[in-house]
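Shipment paperwork, digital attachment
Item: protein structure file
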Amino acid sequence: MNTPGRKQGRRDGGTPVAWRQQLAQRWQAQPPRQQLLVALAIVLVAAALLWWIALAPALSLWREAPQKQRALDLEMQTLQTLESQARMLRQLPQAGRDDARRALEASVQQQLGASGRLQLSGDSATLALTGARGEALAQWLAQARIDARTRPVSAQLSRNAAGLWDGTLTLALPAR
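Attachment content:
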C-alpha cells in the first residue's frame, strides 16, 4: 500500500540516517544473547563470502599451477624439437625433382609395400593407399618430407573396418 507522501522502499518516509537510527534502536532493544548470535551469524556469512570470493579461487589456482607448468614445459619442448627439425630441413641441400621422385618411389616400396601405389605427374605425386598401417604411413610421411623434400597438399583418408588406412594423399614435389 503506497500513500502519496511516501517514497517506495523506505519506512516512515525516512532518510538513510533515519533508517540507521531505527536499526540501532532495534539492535539495542535486543537481549545481549541475541545480539551475540546475530553478530556471529554476520561474521560467519562474511567469512564464507571471503572464502568463496577471495581464498578458494586463489587456492585452486595455486594447486593447479604445477600441472599447468608441466604442460607448458612439455609444449615448449615439443615446439623446440619442431624448430630444430625445421632448421635441419632448411640446411639440407635442395633435392632436384628427379632425386625427389626416386626417393619417393623407394620410400613407398620400403615403408608401405603393396599397400601404397605412387603416381607421379608434373609438380605433384599422388599416393593411393589400400589397407596401410598407421605407423607405416606416419614413417613414410616423415621420410618423404625429409628425403624427397615434399609437402602434403591434400589428403582424403579414412579408416577401414580393420583399422587400416585407405584413400589418397597428394604431395607437392620440390621445384626444379
